[in-house]
């Protein structure tokens, strides 16, 4: 059984030694709600701090690669691909979709969720001077494939 507890009930990293190496992929999303004028400034490239989407994309990729440094008991992974896509959604939100892949013994859900979260936090950081009321929401796993637990996909809403 995979657990973060050892025989004495202490937290430890799950031993994945016996697990098979499989292709694994996870997709996560986050949204940042903001004032319409804030989104317009980002989309039109008029933000005084530069290209918000480019900086958030890089931050998300870097965060995925450092997930094991941020989340206790998370395995350090050799990711083979990290993609972070950002797009305007309606007149007042940015949607972030992070996709992580590897061939390994454990999944990449935490890496995808971390990438989406850090990209959202980066948008907040870059835009907080003009819009302190932004809201980061809907950070969630959309899909995962590979591994013993099989395929998961969030139901359409």
Automatic annotation (TrEMBL):
Record-listed E.C. numbers: 4.6.1.17
Enzyme class, spelled out: lyase
Sequence ranges assigned to domain Molybdopterin cofactor biosynthesis C (MoaC) in this UniProt record: 13-147
Active site (record annotation): 125
One annotated GO biological process: Mo-molybdopterin cofactor biosynthetic process
Gene3D superfamilies tied to this protein: Molybdopterin cofactor biosynthesis C (MoaC) domain (3.30.70.640)
rRNA-binding keyword on record: no
Keyword Lyase listed: yes
Positions bound to substrate: 73-75, 110-111
Database matches in Pfam families: MoaC (PF01967)
Annotated metabolic or biological route of this protein: Cofactor biosynthesis; molybdopterin biosynthesis
InterPro entries recorded: MoaC, MoaC_bact/euk, MoaC_sf, MoCo_biosynth_MoaA/MoaC, Mopterin_CF_biosynth-C_dom
Alphabetical UniProt keywords: Lyase, Molybdenum cofactor biosynthesis
Catalyzed reaction equations: (8S)-3',8-cyclo-7,8-dihydroguanosine 5'-triphosphate = cyclic pyranopterin phosphate + diphosphate
GO molecular function: cyclic pyranopterin monophosphate synthase activity
Superkingdom of the organism of origin: Bacteria
Description of how the protein assembles with itself and partners: Homohexamer; trimer of dimers.
Family: Belongs to the MoaC family.
Stated role: Catalyzes the conversion of (8S)-3',8-cyclo-7,8-dihydroguanosine 5'-triphosphate to cyclic pyranopterin monophosphate (cPMP).
Annotated PANTHER family: CYCLIC PYRANOPTERIN MONOPHOSPHATE SYNTHASE (PTHR22960:SF29), MOLYBDOPTERIN COFACTOR SYNTHESIS PROTEIN A (PTHR22960)
This protein's name: Cyclic pyranopterin monophosphate synthase
Lineage of producing organism: Bacteria, Pseudomonadati, Pseudomonadota, Gammaproteobacteria, Pseudomonadales
